């Protein structure tokens, strides 16, 4: 049974109240094109990093400012700020993201906060990445997001696949929580193809997302973590992508099951991943301070994150190692 609590403001109303000015719009479109071109050329390593959940506009703003300063020192990287505004919860409990408002019960307020946060990120000079968790919310941020991700719990879902196939920005598709790579190939293929589906009372037709690619985040089965960013696993996946004629751009998620949900393990994962020429992008979870506790400024409310000092060191290392890899 549904209970309608209140009507949300329309995307037109929200965008009118919080517009992206012409200069920032041009910058956002430039980010989009840079990422699309690099997906084909692979001349730079894409690094998507930021907190597990973007829970505090002030702390995220400070993080993005610091991230931009490091990104400017890394000419071999394309750094994208991870601004995840909603979070899936395996058991339905816990923090669901700033898009639900400060108290988790005011989506209209949350949308405004998240839009302000994303605009601030673009103004700071970095492209925005967000997860496509609730397709209906995408219309509030479609002019701001340069990199969209379909999460592990969504990549097998028909609605998410169909909606993602309409995107004209880069779109990372994660393997399912069990780590099944065959399912991942099927998801990527579905998102890459045109389709027809019902949405918002209309029949919609998509063109297929030409810039969708796989993201390896590991899996778990029977309580055991199953990492999948080792050299042999990535090589096998690359062969599968090429045999199906799919985009062979591969991103390694250093966190989640690949790190056994221990933030510091992302450091060793990064050192391993950068040596593999089949890996073209990296995602990491980092914030101002280490760990997670839910209450401290700049500390993750959800999964553990690396602190910023470790993040800066990793970015500088990735920049140097990628240059050597391509020399």
Write the layout of secondary structure elements.
Blueprint (H helix, E strand, L loop, with lengths): L10 H7 L4 H20 L3 E6 L6 H15 L5 E6 L24 H18 L3 E4 L13 E6 L7 H7 L5 E5 L6 H12 L3 E4 L2 E4 L6 E5 L2 E3 L2 E3 L4 H13 L6 E4 L11 H9 L7 E5 L22 H18 L2
Parallel strand pairs: 1-2, 1-12, 2-3, 3-4, 4-5, 5-8, 8-11, 11-12
Antiparallel strand pairs: 6-7, 9-10
Helix pairs in contact: 3-4, 3-9, 5-6
Description:
The chain has 327 residues and is α/β, with parallel strands linked by helices. The protein has one domain: TIM Barrel. It contains 9 helices and 12 strands. It has helices at residues 11-17, 22-41, 57-71, 107-124, 158-164, 181-192, 231-243, 265-273, 308-325; strands at residues 45-50, 77-82, 128-131, 145-150, 170-174, 196-199, 202-205, 212-216, 219-221, 224-226, 250-253, 281-285. The chain has an 8-stranded parallel barrel with strand order 1-2-3-4-5-8-11-12, surrounded by 7 helices. Strand 2, helix 4 and strand 3 form a beta-alpha-beta unit. The longest helix has 20 residues, at 22-41. It is globular and about 55 Å long. The termini are far apart.
